[in-house]
Amino acid sequence: MYTLPDLPYDLQALEPYISGDIMKLHYTKHHQGYIDKLNDVLAGAPQALKGLPLVQLLRQLDQVPGPIRTAVRNQGGGHYNHSLFWQCMTPGGRQLQGELAKQIAKKYGSFEEFQRIFTERALGVFGSGWVWLMPDLSITTTANQDSPVMDGQDEPILALDVWEHAYYLDYKNVRADYITQWWRVVNWSAVADRYRAMRVE
Ligand code: MN3
């Protein structure tokens, strides 16, 4: 059984950039919903697929029986992606420093240029999806609740949810405004920790 991970801050803590109303809906309804449906669908799955670490489950979707594969992909991806997304934010945000700052500046010319390109990619996602910063510092996007780990890639170090449910209550349909404000709550120290951990593996 998968369970909802604790949120590392209060639901209102990201205000005024992301409201408590959005967080409540997003965390306690959407994220919990993915987990409940994942547990439901796995109830009928082969024993070998039960109780796996989530990343491992998503990396072997080809072994999930056809009739439940799409559900495991969508609900399992939803659980994985949101679990990472919450870790990527913190009240007031954190400055990007150290080796990750250096490497991003090296790859993109400047942090501002990196932000511009990441934002551009986020605005380019048609419909619902995600934007990712990978451990090699490339930027990639996925549709729906897909995750790079489903293609055998490394785990991302930064996640941005661009589903309308992530911002509609605060920003209506204006994704650009949401992203501008989202940058203010990015937890770069957590992202740098993930970067370091991925690099030494
Ligand atoms: Mn979401």
Write the layout of secondary structure elements.
Elements: H1 20-42, H2 54-59, H3 66-87, H4 98-108, H5 111-123, E1 129-133, E2 139-143, E3 158-161, H6 168-171, H7 175-182, H8 188-200
Antiparallel strand pairs: 1-2, 1-3
Helix pairs in contact: 1-3
The chain binds manganese (III) ion.
Strand tally: 3
Helix fraction, binned, reads 40-55%
Which hetero compounds are present in the coordinates?
Answer: manganese (III) ion
Structural class: mainly alpha
Q: How much of the sequence is in beta strands?
A: 5-15%
Distance between the termini: 28 Å
* Major sheet size, sense and barrel closure: 3 strands, antiparallel
Count helical runs: 8
